[in-house]
Amino acid sequence: MTATDPALTALSQGWCALSLLHGRIEAHIERALQAGHDLSVREYSLLDVLSRQHEGDGGHLQMKQVADAVVLSQSATTRLVTRLEDRGLLERYLCPTDRRGIYTNVTAAGLELLGEARHTYDAALREALDEAARNPDLAPLVRVVETLKTPVPA
């Protein structure tokens, strides 16, 4: 394939459209969360991921798993955890069975803020998707996003 290959051009244009859709949605949600709850999208995502932990086997996430879930490096995730811990929204503690392991849990204040922010997040997501759907280049991607089903962990 050459640089002018139509398949490569279409692939590149599709990726650009997907990137544009993601950027617009994330920026819209970011503005709403910052204005309403003094939270970034990443902070919200981290609180959401950690709030889904549970006791028992496989119930707590390792930092690498958390980093993967919020799409950040491990060092950036650690800095994010520290910021939220400083705000009293998260707490860290040693794993009871392995003193080398550190778990992070959402505090009561973090759960309360997450609950308040969830409506804002959902509304901003819907608004951003509705706005993007009016763009003929993005409308097909919006339809795909709206039909995706998130797998439920067993």
What would your notes on this structure say?
This protein is 64% helix and 6% strand. With 154 residues, it is mainly alpha-helical. A two-stranded antiparallel ribbon has the order 1-2.
Shape: globular
Low confidence ranges? none
Order of the strands making up the biggest sheet: 1-2
Question: What integer is the average pLDDT?
Answer: 88
Summarize the model shown.
The protein is mostly helical and 154 residues long. The protein has helices at residues 6-37, 41-51, 63-70, 74-86, 108-133, 139-147, and strands at 90-94, 102-106.
List keywords for this structure.
154 residues; mainly alpha; two-stranded antiparallel ribbon; 2 strands
